[in-house]
Amino acid sequence: MTPPNKEKICVIHIVDTSSTEKIKMFDDEKLLKCKNALLVHKFRTNSKFSGLNLPETPDDTQGYHSSCYSKFTAVSSSQIKSAKEKQCNKNSESASAVQDSSSLPGNFHKHLFKAYSIKNSPMFCRYRNSLCNTKQF
Fold it and tell me: What predicted TM-score, i.e. pTM, was given to this entire model?
């Protein structure tokens, strides 16, 4: 239970008006869905959601309104897949700048992922030309 001095906030609420809707707390599944949606919004031009900061893990103060969650997560699985591929390509290009991939042994696979990569979520990687299930994001 949340102590009385900790106010719950909707972290995906972008409207300037207050809402009387109850704030729900994230669970792992809802937070992962939001992180996937955030990745899509970061690659969209002029997305009102691209600047949001989501919590790393569920806590007792940062949550969401159902209506805000519905609007924010209204992205298709193909858009999520495309955004993950773009992120992986972006990271692969960064990795190439650090170390030439031709010098890596055949069984070695190195990733450089940014802070907003999705933990424990498969990503398409251009370097491996496959889905990457590496948990070291």
Answer: 0.63
